[in-house]
Structures are given as C-alpha cells and as structure tokens.
Amino acid sequence: MKTPPSYDLIFLAQIMPSSLTSLKRRLKAVHRNLRGAKMVARAFMSTDHPLLAHIIPIRRCNLACEYCNEFDDFSKPVPLETMFRRIDKLGELGTSVVTISGGEPLLHPELDEVIRRIRHNGMVAGLITNGYLLVAERIQRLNKAGLEWLQISIDNVNPDDVSKKSLKVLDKKLELLAEHAEFHVNINSVVGGGVKNPQDALAIGRRAMALGFSSTIGIIHDGDGQVQPLTEDERAVYQEMKSMEKRSFTRINAFQDNISQGRPNQWRCRAGARYLYICEDGLVHYCSQQRGYPAVPLEKYTVADIRREFLTEKSCAPHCTVSCVHQVSVFDSWRAPQQPPTAVVPSGAGDLVQIE
User: Fold this and answer.
1) Which residue of 158, 281, 309, 336 could cross-link 273, Cys pair, CB 3.0 to 4.6 Å?
2) pLDDT tens sequence across 285-332
3) Which positions of the chain have pLDDT values less than 50?
4) What digits encode the pLDDT tens for the residues 321-352?
C-alpha cells in the first residue's frame, strides 16, 4: 500500500519555479545578512584586513562600451591554479568579500571553480557581469557554485554607439534571473558619460524592482575617464532614482551628490588597505581607475602594506567615482587621519614603485 504524499510535499509541488526560487533567495539572504553583520563588527574592531577585493580572472570582454577602459578583445583567462593561489592569499589576509570582475568574467571557462574557492575560504562571493552570456543552465550553475550576489549595469533602454548594455537586449536575461537565481541580484543604471537619454535610468530601475531585484544608480565618466557635472535633467533623474533605492550597505552613496554637481568630496580613501583591486597579472592596485599604484604582487602583499596604504592619502580621492571604495572606507571615516604618500618598496623586491 502506497504512503500518501504529505500536504507539505503537495504544497511545494504546486509552487511555481520562480516563487520557489524567490523563497530560496530570501532564505539565503537571511544567512548572508547574518554573516555580513559579523563582518561589519569585525571591520570596526580591526583595520588590518581588506573588507572588499575585486579580482580579475580575464581582461577580455565580448562588448566594447565607449566609456570603459577595463577590457581588451584578446586576453586569455588566468589559469585556474593561479586564481586559486590568489584567492587563498586573500583568505590569508582576512578579506571579507571578493567580487569577480573583468573584462567579462563569464568568459572564464572555470569560473564556477573560482567561486567555489572563494566560498571555501569563508569569503562572500560576488560577480559583476554584462549579462549577455546568462542562460538558465548557466544561472543554475552559479547557484550550485555558491554565488551570493550579482550585479549587471544597464546603460540605456535601446543600444547605441556608447553602450550595447541595453534593457531591450537584456530584459530576457533579467527574466531568467528572476526565475532561476538563488543569489541577490542588483541592477545598476547610469547617468552622465554621454548617456543620451537620462530617463532610461528610471525605466531600468522600475523594471528591476518589478522583477524583485534591488536597483542602484551610478554616475559614469566619459571615454577620456573624466566626470562632468550632471545637467538639470540628469540631476532630476538621479534624485528620483535615489528615492527608489532600498536601504542597505551598497546604498552608501551620498558622495555621489557632490559628484553630480561637480563638487569634490573630502574623505579618507582606504584603497590598498580596506579595498584591493587585483588585476589579471596578480598585482594589487588602488582601483580600476588607478592601475599602477602601488602595483605590488598580491603574493607579496602583507599587513605592513595594508597599514601603509590605510594611512596614505590619495590625490585622486576628491573626484573619485568608485562607489565600492567609498563604501568600504566609511567604516574608518572617523579614525586615523591620512598623510602624504611615499615611495613603496614591494616586499621581496628591490625596485621602487612611485606613487603620485
């Protein structure tokens, strides 16, 4: 005689796949937030470890956005064993969060193993992608690998000469994420930098929220890496988007208010200490826009390097638009005034690396 199915099983079988995925996403978010709270407490207690690292597994990208200076069309992926050594080193340094960026990281053939290695080291695993290569099977693989959050920047509603990252092209990808992704998804829209229609940002933000994602807005530089004050129309869109954003750590972006009006920010940039940018060559840089400083190999990076850069004043800070550096630096805005930079002697190396 067959045992009748329980009411719980019958109920679960009736849940739509997207609803079940949404439930899993919320449960994982609770766990992630608990881990995040512990990391925040640790961040206030100690300054000798990075809070966030961006790591590049491949510089190549399948797109060529006009304003972007972070890609090429020929680089090979970093070998998996090399990536493992770099991730393990970040773990040894006590890094809290590792975000995989590029280029387009989904072009790396062993990206899932990279994500697993990050989680194995007890660090939060994030991914920044243009979304073009996402299909249902690929999203499910990211779930299994342990990815915890993903961000896609969408620049316009319809593709143009500046950017092909458009809502028209990516909307089906967003629907797939809503149906299958068990990780947090944030959609970032932009103003400035030659974006032709500022109102597009509102359409993108509303679509993201309708699908159950979070939405943020950024101010982008032009093709020469320069940031211009926003026009009146752009500022209106920027303010409306800000009012739509949900409260969370990633929404620590008040610095953008000054940038939108062409005003400098006075703050203590902790790049090279609380934030590390590791390029495909394994060198530690301040950020994607300041590659070349301090340019110390990650394998030789020590707590002494972290302490030095924590106290080093960066001349680029007043007009910086790199949100993640601003966000992690907030933890230490109240302590340890910074001082003029000095030359750096990489650990185990004899050559000086000059810092501006």
Assistant:
1) 309
2) 999 989 999 999 999 999 999 999 999 999 999 988 888 999 999 999
3) 1-3, 5-7, 9-16, 223-225, 247-250, 347-356
4) 888 999 999 999 999 999 998 755 554 443 33
Distances (CA, A) of 263 to 58, 180, 218, 333: 35, 42, 16, 19
Is there a contact between 277 and 284 (Cβ–Cβ < 8 Å)?
A: yes
pLDDT at 221: 61
For residue 356, what pLDDT is reported?
36
Partner residues linked to 125 by β-bridges: 98
Tokens of 165: 């990252």
Sign of the Cα torsion 186, 104, 55, 253 reads negative
Q: Which of 288, 290, 287, 285 is nearest to 346 (CA)?
A: 285
Q: How far apart are CA 235 and CA 140, in angstroms?
A: 38
Q: What are 151-182's pLDDT values in tens digits?
A: 999 999 999 887 889 999 999 999 999 999 99
Rounded to an integer, what distance in angstroms lies between the CA atom of residue 306 and that of residue 51?
11
Q: 141: buried, middle or exposed (CB in 10 Å: 19+, 13-18, 0-12)?
A: middle
Instruction: Supply the pLDDT for residue 31.
Output: 85
Q: Is the peptide bond before 192 cis (omega within 30 degrees of 0)?
A: no
- Please state the length of the chain: 356
26 φ, ψ to 5°?
-65, -40
